Amino acid sequence: xTRKARRRLHPIAIMAGLGKELKNMVVxxxxxxxxxxxxxFSWTDILVPLAALIYTLVMGVLSWLRFTxxxxxxxxVVEEGVFVRKKRSxxxxxxxGISVTEGIWQRMAGVVQVHIETAGDALGEAEVTLRAISRxxxxxLQRCVEQAKHKAENASHPEPLANRPHPALFTLSMKxxxxxxxTSGGALGVVAALCAFLSQFSDFxxxxxxxxxxxxxxxxxxxxxxxxxILSILLAAYGVAIxxxxxxxxxxxxxxxxxxxxxxxxxLERKAxxxxxxxxxxxxxxxxxxxxxxxxxxVSIIHAGGALDGGPSGEVVLCPLVKKHRIVxxxxxxxxxxxxxxxxxxxxxxxxxxxxxxxxxxLTIPVGVAAYMERPWGAGLLFVLPxxxxxxxxxxxxxxxxxxSKQLSLRNGWFRRTTAHLLKRHVQSLEIATTxxxxxxxxxxxxxxxxxxxxRSRVVDVDEEDAAxxxxxLQGEKGDxx
Length: 482
Fold this sequence. Notes:
By secondary structure, the protein is of the alpha+beta class.
């Protein structure tokens, strides 16, 4: 195969790049304009924002003109840079992940955006981003990457990759998309994002005066109005989170193409993520209390690269919402080496009191103070303490670990139960820590980490002998276990 002629991106890439840059500039420009107009508006107040806007437009056009790419059956070559010219040559077999996105601008022009990731990338960053190329060209690039990988592994494929059928292993109906959105619990993230946005205007919004007004309203027995306002904000944030998740998980489908897991999803922005099986470092099952009540869970895979799916670095959602009895066959079809139906070993009985008392360490004083200040009705808050004891007991029952010849599984949490399944060869480190109180009861905390750096799973209050057996297993001194 000869190298394709050097090409430029579709012109819509200019608008896509400008849209991203302008979105990042909105808040700083508003702050500059507001600061300049505090003593009266003047046309000079818009000179700096106007100059920044013109500079961004010119640089966007020049960046598009100077960006070229080409590839053959061995490598991808990209040249870019306005003032400093940079040329990169990436061997196709070194590419570990490709995600294809169709944003609003790309859909208008009938093109896609391709993110290409290699082993040397910073977490959450693509090594190369082709902002606007045709769908057919993106598919050809993916096929070339697959063929280059198989050639590097001395594998033969008599049947062309493009002609092989790839049936869907998992899909989400609109009803399931709606259920996943309702039970996602993303309202707090929306509130945090809103607070972060408002904090940019701390010089112009009189927050101290607002706090004083809230305090006076509270002291003036207007606390029910404040509680209603807070509840309204949380409900609005919950509604925004539902809409976000519905847009994100619409048309969700998972396919297995040779040795690659392909996950496609999205409504306004169609996105397809390709994850090579050999780059998967573990499987994580999340169950919040509401989904667990109805027998549902969500499944993610730990990817050795960056955040291909827009979530936490190294984590890609495999099933946003799935019945628990369907998890094992789906994961087996995608990742045959993993065993999810393993029996878990419970924690020792002497750890139960620690789990039950742990929530009281930080709840007793604030609940006691609130009950005293709001007496006599505040006494009802004291019922939180036995509830905390009950939740601690449930967390103790949920926690556990499992070990086999090739896999370590760790489980913790109750409100949001997390079960991580890690293959032995992917475990980067195993940490065993103990406090003075744990040492008295011969208990330890074990945590295992995989790539990328910082991806860690742990279980608190494991028996010392059990932790030692896990450590020997990792060191290869222990025989096969079941």
